[in-house]
Specification:
Blueprint (H helix, E strand, L loop, with lengths): L1 E9 L8 E2 L2 H12 L9 E2 L1 E2 H12 L8 H13 L11 E7 L5 E7 L3 E16 L4 E15 L3 E14 L16 E5 L4 E15 L2 E8 L2 E2 L16 E11 L2 E15 L15 E16 L2 E12 L13 H7 L9 E12 L4 E11 L12 E10 L7 E10 L14 E2 L2 E2 L8 E13 L2 E12 L22 E15 L2 E14 L11 E10 L5
Parallel strand pairs: 1-28
Antiparallel strand pairs: 1-7, 2-4, 3-13, 5-6, 6-7, 7-8, 8-9, 9-11, 10-11, 11-12, 12-14, 14-15, 15-16, 16-17, 17-18, 18-19, 19-20, 20-21, 21-24, 22-23, 24-25, 25-26, 26-27, 27-28
Length: about 550
C-alpha cells in the first residue's frame, strides 16, 4: 500500500491571460458542446482565454432553462473568472497578497485600461509512502507571470524547479502519462532527483487570428486519455506559429519548432581539461492542420507534419505548402529525406442524445500497395464516444480504444524520430501497444466533482534508437507482452477560486513481461489526499 499526503501551495497558470490548460473549464465547455449549447473545436487545443470568454458570453445569452442548476452556478463562477477578458477598468488597480475584484487571489497584480500584469509564486510539497520505511518527498518552487498590453498583445511565462528525494524515484517516465522530464539528474549524495521546467508565450491576436512565439504544449486530435498527434507527453519545445479562423466553419493552425534530438554529433567533439563538449544534432519540426465544420454537428480536421535534422529548411516557413511534397523536393531518393506524417480527426456531435463520436488517425508510414501485407504499417488510431447526462443529470461517460502499431513515432535515423528529448510527442503508451479506457465523471454541485476510470493497456517490445525497424517479425504486440490495468477513483472540491481539496484512490496491476520495464514497479495500491492552490504540475 502506498499512502501519499499532498500539500500543494501552487499557483501555476491560474490566471493566465494567454492560453489556458485549466481542465475544469475544458470539462465545462465540453459538456455544453455535447448539449448543443455552444460549438467548440476539440481537435485543436489549448484555447485562449479570450475564446473561452466568448463562449461564456454565448452561454450567458441563452435562456436559463437551457442549463441545469449546477451548470448555471458553474457558468456564474467561470464568468467572473474570465470577466477580465471582457471588461477593462477605467482607472488603475493594484493588488498585493489579496483577492482582486473578480475573486482571484494575486501575490501582485496591476491593471489599467492599457496594461495588465500579475505575478504568482509556484510552491508545492508531496510526501509519498510505499510500505513501511519507504517514502519519497517531492517539493518544488518557482514563479509565473502573465498579462496583456492593449487588447492585442498577450504574454505569460513560468519556471519550476522540482526535487524528488527518497527510496523510489522514477527518473525515466518511459511508460507513464505524465510529461517527460525536461531536464533532470540524480544526486547520489542526497539520494535525490532534480528537474526543471519552463514555459512562455507571446501572442499578438486580432478578431480572426493570432501569431505567436512560444514554448508550451499543443493538443491536436481527439483523445480522452492521451492524444495521438500532439500531446504533453514530451516536454514542450520552442516554436512559432499562426492560427487563423476567418469564418465560423474553418480554422487553420501552423507551428514551426526546434526539437532536442538527444543525439550527439561526434564531429563536433571538443576535449577539455574539466570536461568534453559535443553538440547535439539539430532537429526541427513543422506541422499544420486545417479544421472544417462540415455540417453543424460534424467536424473534420486534416494535417501533416515533418521532422527533419541537420539543416534548417526555409521551405517549411510557408504555412500552407504541402510538407510531404516539399520534403521530396529537398532530397535525392531517401538519402536526405525527413520523416513526414499525415493525420486527421473526426467528431460527430449528436445533441439529441447528448453524445459525441470521436476518432483520430495518425499515419507515420503507409504503403498503399502493401496494405494487408506481412506486418502492419506504422499507423495509429483511436475511436471513442462520450455522453453526458448518462442515466442521471451531470453524469458523463467516456469510452475509447487506442491502437499504436509497431514503428509509429520511430525512424531509421535517430535524429528524425517523432520525439523531443527522447519522449514521443504523441500518445504516451508509445508504439506497439493498445489501450481500452472507460470513465465516469459526476458533478455533485458547483465545485465538487468525481471521477471513476479504468484502463487496460497491452504493450509489446520497446524499440531502441539503434534497433532495426520494419522487420518481418514486427507484428502487432511483437516481443514480450506486458499487461497493465489501472482503476482510479478521485473526488475534487474547489472550496473557492483555485483552492482545491482532493482525495484519490488508485490500484495498479501488471503481469507478463517487458524488455524495458520492471513489471513489479506497476503493481501497487495508492491513496492520496491533497490541498492545493492552482494546478498541480504534471
Amino acid at each position: 500500500m502506498r499512502i501519499i499526503l499532498i500539500l500543494l501551495l501552487s499557483t501555476l497558470i491560474f490566471g493566465q491571460s494567454g492560453r489556458t490548460n485549466y481542465d475544469r473549464i475544458y470539462d465545462f465547455l465540453e459538456r455544453q458542446d455535447l448539449l448543443g449549447n455552444i460549438s467548440i473545436n476539440n481537435h485543436i487545443k489549448p484555447y485562449s482565454r479570450k475564446f473561452i470568454a466568448k463562449k461564456l458570453i454565448e452561454l450567458k445569452d441563452l435562456s436559463p432553462a437551457s442549463l441545469s442548476k449546477t451548470d448555471l452556478k458553474e457558468l456564474e463562477y467561470f464568468y467572473h473568472e474570465y470577466l477580465p477578458e471582457i471588461t477593462k477598468p477605467k482607472k488603475s488597480v493594484n493588488s498585493f497578497l489579496s483577492y482582486d475584484e473578480y475573486g482571484r487571489f494575486n501575490i501582485y497584480g496591476y491593471k489599467d485600461s492599457l496594461f495588465e500584469f500579475n505575478l504568482v509564486p509556484n510552491l508545492g510539497l508531496i510526501y509519498e509512502q510505499r510500505g513501511e520505511g519507504k517514502s519519497t518527498l517531492t517539493y518544488w518552487n518557482g514563479f509565473n507571470f502573465y498579462g496583456t498590453i492593449t487588447d492585442n498583445v498577450v504574454f505569460d511565462a513560468g519556471y519550476l524547479d522540482v526535487s524528488y528525494k527518497g527510496d523510489f524515484i522514477d527518473g525515466s517516465r518511459l511508460f507513464d502519462p505524465n510529461t517527460g522530464f525536461e531536464f533532470g539528474g540524480f544526486k547520489r549524495s542526497t539520494n535525490s532527483f532534480n528537474s526543471t521546467r519552463t514555459y512562455g508565450n507571446l501572442t499578438y491576436c486580432w478578431n480572426w487570428g493570432e501569431v505567436f512565439i512560444s514554448k508550451d504544449h499543443h493538443y491536436w486530435g481527439t483523445g480522452y486519455n492521451g492524444n495521438l498527434i500532439l500531446s504533453d507527453k514530451a516536454p514542450s519545445f520552442p516554436h512559432f506559429g499562426i492560427k487563423v479562423y476567418p469564418a465560423e466553419w474553418i480554422e487553420f493552425v501552423y507551428i514551426n519548432g526546434f526539437l532536442n534530438s538527444a543525439v550527439q554529433d561526434s564531429a563536433t567533439l571538443r576535449t577539455g581539461i574539466l570536461r568534453d563538449h559535443v553538440q547535439l544534432v539539430d532537429k526541427y519540426y513543422a506541422a499544420h492542420m486545417v479544421s472544417f465544420r462540415v455540417f453543424d454537428d460534424l467536424r473534420l480536421s486534416l494535417g501533416e507534419s515533418v521532422v527533419y535534422s541537420d539543416q534548417y529548411e526555409a521551405i517549411y516557413l510557408i504555412p500552407f505548402i504541402v510538407f510531404r511534397a516539399a520534403d521530396h523536393n529537398l532530397t535525392v531518393k531517401d538519402i536526405n529525406a525527413g520523416n513526414a506524417q499525415i493525420f486527421g480527426s473526426l467528431s460527430w456531435n449528436i445533441p439529441i442524445i447528448k453524445a459525441r463520436l470521436d476518432a483520430s488517425l495518425f499515419i507515420d508510414e503507409l504503403s498503399i500497395s502493401d496494405i494487408g501485407g506481412q506486418f502492419p504499417e506504422a499507423v495509429a488510431f483511436n475511436a471513442g464516444i462520450t455522453k453526458t447526462d448518462l442515466i442521471m443529470e451531470n453524469l458523463t461517460g467516456e469510452f475509447e480504444y487506442t491502437r499504436v502499431n509497431p514503428n509509429v513515432y520511430e525512424h531509421a535515423d535517430a535524429a528524425q524520430t517523432y520525439y523531443n528529448r527522447r519522449y514521443q510527442m504523441g500518445h504516451w503508451i508509445g508504439s506497439n501497444a493498445d489501450q481500452f479506457y472507460v470513465s465516469l465523471k459526476y458533478t455533485f454541485f458547483r465545485g465538487l466533482r468525481s471521477k471513476l476510470s479504468y484502463e487496460f493497456t497491452r504493450r509489446g517490445d520497446f524499440v531502441g534508437p539503434n534497433d532495426p525497424l520494419y522487420q518481418d517479425d514486427h507484428l502487432f504486440l511483437f516481443g514480450q507482452k506486458g499487461y497493465f490495468s489501472k482503476i482510479f477513483l478521485g473526488v475534487e472540491y474547489e472550496w473557492r477560486n483555485h483552492i482545491f481539496v482532493t482525495l484519490n484512490i488508485t490500484n495498479h496491476n501488471a503481469w507478463g513481461g517487458s524488455n524495458r520495464l520492471d513489471i513489479e514497479d506497476y503493481r501497487y495500491f495508492e491513496a492520496s489526499v491533497g490541498l492545493r492552490v492552482g494546478i498541480m504540475p504534471r
